[in-house]
Amino acid sequence: MALPGNIPCEAIMESLADGVFTVDTDWNITFFNRAAGDVAGIAPAKALGRKCWEVFHSSLCDGACALRACIDGDKTLANQAIFIVRPDGTKVPVSISAAPLRDASGRIVGGVETFRDISDLTRLRKELEGVCTLDDILTKNKALARTLALLPKIAASASPVLLLGESGSGKELFARALHNLSPRRAGPFVAVNCGAIPGELLESELFGHVRGAFTDAKADRKGRFALAKGGTLFLDEVGDMPLALQVKLLRVLQEKSFEPVGSDKSQPTDVRILAATNRDLAAMAATGEFRRDLFYRLGVARLVLPPLRERPEDIPLLAAAFIDRFNLVQAKAVTGLSEAALKRLVRHDYPGNVRELQNILEYAFILRSEGRIGLEDLPDYLRAQPGEALLPAASGTMQAVKHQAAVATLARHGGKPMAACRELGITKDTLRRILALGPGD
Amino acid sequence: MPLIHHTPHTTPCCCTRVCLACHGDRLASLLETATAFRLFRFEAQAVVAEGSWDMPDGGLIPLAGFLAGAGVVLLVCGGATCCCLKHFTRHGVAVAPWIVGEVSAVLSALGQNRLDTLLAPGARPSRALARRVRVGTNDLESTQS
Q: Is the ipTM of this complex over 0.95?
C-alpha cells in the first residue's frame, strides 16, 4: 500500500521510536533518523554520507553484515539480536530488521535497516535466567579487577575452583560467570547449598538414590551430580559439608564416578566442580574439621573475594547498578542517591556485603518511587550510626572538632587507624598528630 | 604486502611498531570483531608491513600479550569498550580507538601525525590521540593511555 502523495515520508520516519537508516549500494548512509541518532549516540548530520560501518559499530559489521546479506540475497530479515558500541564506549543490545530498497523500475538501489534498543529486555531476561557474565561484575577495586582478569583463563580450564569470601560478597555471581565463560556454558549450572540441607539428606541430594535405598525412597531419583552432567556443579557453603560426605566427594573428584545411595553401580560423572565457603577452610583443615586432601583438591584454583568494606570505591558503582535494576523491575524513576545518602553508604561497614547494600536500596525503593534517595529513605540502623552522636555540631575550636571526628571515626572502625584514615582522607601521621594534640581547651 | 611510503614532510622515524585492527582493507568497525591484526614498522623512508595475526583463541586478552611481546607500541582500532581497552593498557600498549578508514589512509595519517582526522563520527579523541601520537618520533613512548 502506497502513502498518499501529500504525506511526507521523512516526517513519518522522524516520528518513529525505532532507529532507521538507509544506505546506497556503496554503503554510504543516505538517511539517518533522529531515533537512530539517539540509540547509536551520533548526531544524524554527522552520519549522513559516511560508510555505515563507520557509524554503526555493530557486532555484524566486520564480516557478517545483515544488510549485505539482505541486498545480495534479495531477502528481508527481522528481529535479529546484535549489539552496537556507542562512541562513549557503552555496549547496547539492539534488535535489527533489514531489507533491500528498490527504485520504481525494481532495481536494488540500497538497503534499509531499522533497529531498537533492547537493553531493558536483555537485562530482564538475564535476571530471569540468572545469566551472569564478566560485564555483570562491577568493580573499580584493583585487587578484584586482577581476579576478574584471571577469570577467563580459569574458566577455560577443567580444574575445580574454590571461591572464598564472606557471605554476600558475590561468590555465586563469580561461579555463574565462571560457568558462562567456560566451554561448559551450554550445559546446566546446578547450585547446591550444602549448609541448607541436613547432612543425612545431602548425600541423596548430591548423588541421588535408587528405589528402596531408605524408607521413603519409593522411586529412583537423580542427584545433582547427574543433573549437572555436561555442566557445572556449584557447591555453596562447602565448609558445612559433613566429614563422611567429604570422603565421598573426594572420591568423585579423583575417580570421576559416584554411586547413588543404595546402589553399588558406579556412574561416570562429567561435571566441573566449583565450591565456595565463607569459612576459613585452611584453619578447618588444620583442626581436622575439614579434610585436608579435599581442601587441596577443591582449591586447585582459589579466588578470594574481598568484602565490600575493603572496596568502598565500588559502593557508588554498585548502588547505581542496583538503582537501575530496581527502576526497571519496579517501573520507578529513582534518579540516584543524594550526597548525604551516598556518604552514609560509603561509611557503612557492610557485614552483609553486597547483598546488604542491595537490601538497603531495595528498602529505599519501598519509600521512594522517583527523585533521589535521601538519608531519610535509608533503614534506621544506617541513619543513626554509632559514633555519629559524638560528632560536635560545628562548635568549639577547630582542634576540638578534628579531635572529636578522629575519635568518633576510630571508634566506628573498632580502633583500626588505617580504616579511620581512609574515611577521613588523612594520613596516619596526621591522625596521630590530631590525637596527640587532644581536644585543646 | 606493498610498502607504503611516507610523504616528504614526515618526521624522522625510529622503527616504531604499530598494529592495525582490521577487517579486509579497512580498520575493523569494532576491536573485538577485528579479523586481522596487521603489524607495520615505521622506518625513516617507508612503512614496512611485517605480518598479520588472526584473532587468537581467547580473544583480546592473549592478543594484548602477543602485541606487547612483539614490541608493538600502538594499536589503532575502530570502536571499543573500556573493557576491551584495559587489557592493552595493562600490557603497556597504547591504543588509538575509534579510528575509521582504509589501511593505507590510516598509515598515511599516522606518518603525518594526523590520526585525529580519521576519528569516527561522534567519537572524542582518546588520551593517546590527545597527546598527539607520533609514530615517527620517540614521543610515542609517552602516549600509553
A: no
Q: What is the residue type of A193?
A: N
Q: Which residue segments constitute the domains of chain A, with CATH numbers given?
A: 9-117 (3.30.450.20), 127-306 (3.40.50.300), 311-383 (1.10.8.60), 388-437 (1.10.10)
CA–CA gap between residue A273 and residue A179 (Å, rounded): 10
CB A230 within 8 A of CB A238: no
Q: Do A89 and B81 touch (CB under 8 A)?
A: yes
CB of B127 within 8 Å of any CB in chain A? no
Q: Average the pLDDT over A95-103 and give the result.
A: 92
**Closest among A53, A289, A131, A166 to B34, alpha carbons compared:** A53
CA atoms lying within 13 Å on the CB side of residue B45: 0
Residue B81 to residue A50, Cβ atoms within 8 A: no
pLDDT of the residue at B145: 38
Residue recorded with cell 547450585: A191
Question: Please, is A370 exposed, middle or buried when counting C-beta atoms within 10 Å of its C-beta (0-12, 13-18, 19+)?
Answer: exposed
Chain B residues in contact with A135 (beta carbon < 8 A)? 83
**What residues of B are in contact with residue A56 (Cβ under 8 Å)?**
29
Contacts of A62 in chain B (CB under 8 A): 23, 28-30, 33-35
Check CB contact of B131 with chain A, cutoff 8 Å.
Answer: no
Region B4-25+35-124+133-142: CATH code: 3.30.420.130
Is residue B110 pLDDT above 80, yes or no? yes
Closest by alpha carbon to A406, among A395, A417, A394? A417
Q: How confident is the model at residue A397 (pLDDT cuts 50, 70, 90)?
A: confident
E strand map for A34-193: 77-85, 91-102, 108-117, 161-164, 189-193
